[in-house]
Specification:
Layout (H helix, E strand, L loop, with lengths): L2 H7 L1 H14 L2 E6 L5 E6 L1 E4 L2 E7 L3 H8 L2 E6 L10 E10 L3 H15 L8 E15 L5 E6 L3 E4 L10
Antiparallel strand pairs: 1-2, 1-5, 3-4, 4-7, 5-6, 6-7, 7-8, 8-9
Helix pairs in contact: 1-2
Length: about 160
């Protein structure tokens, strides 16, 4: 589902993710290379036109990966070993955005955020069709959340929780 639908379906994880996107301005994405091996790449997320957008340099390897196999994972960037902000993850399919209105709105959002936007048509733009999301926080304030469109939001037993809790 598009970002706007995900926010309505799972506002708890969506609010955490939106805050992390704004503060970190960077996520790590996992894609699959032609030989099936994984590739991890940094990418700047933006929410534009109701979509979680990922702009990429023209002809980048990660863009070629997604054009060939749209499966993607988007993971927040840990701040340090203890990662007090927790891990935010989204899994889904990347959709190449060719609609000129969507691309224009994305460029406007990017321009407002960093005072720069790529010229058309010299960039790839993908949005994420979200199928699963998770949030995990460690330490004294541990929390484990998982959402998918079939089961909804669930609070799970945290892997660090003592037995019986």
């Amino acid at each position: 589902m598009r970002w706007v639908e995900f926010e309505a379906a799972c506002p708890r994880i969506a609010a955490i993710a939106r805050e992390r996107f704004a503060s970190d301005e960077m996520v790590m994405i996992g894609t699959l290379r032609a030989d099936g091996s994984p590739r991890i790449s940094g990418c700047e997320p933006d929410i534009a036109a109701g979509r979680l957008c990922l702009g990429m340099m023209w002809q980048s390897r990660k863009a070629h990966d997604l054009r060939r196999d749209p499966r993607i994972v988007v993971h927040s960037v840990p701040s340090d070993r203890m990662n007090p902000g927790g891990d935010v993850k989204r899994t889904g399919l990347a959709i190449e955005e060719t609609d000129l209105d969507v691309r224009r709105i994305y460029r406007e959002v990017l321009q407002a955020r960093i005072d720069w936007a790529p010229d058309e048509p010299n960039f790839h733009l993908f949005s994420v069709d979200i199928t699963e999301a998770a949030y995990m926080r460690f330490g004294d304030d541990r929390l484990a959340l998982h959402w998918d469109e079939h089961r909804g939001l669930r609070e799970l037993r945290h892997p660090d929780a003592p037995e019986g809790s």
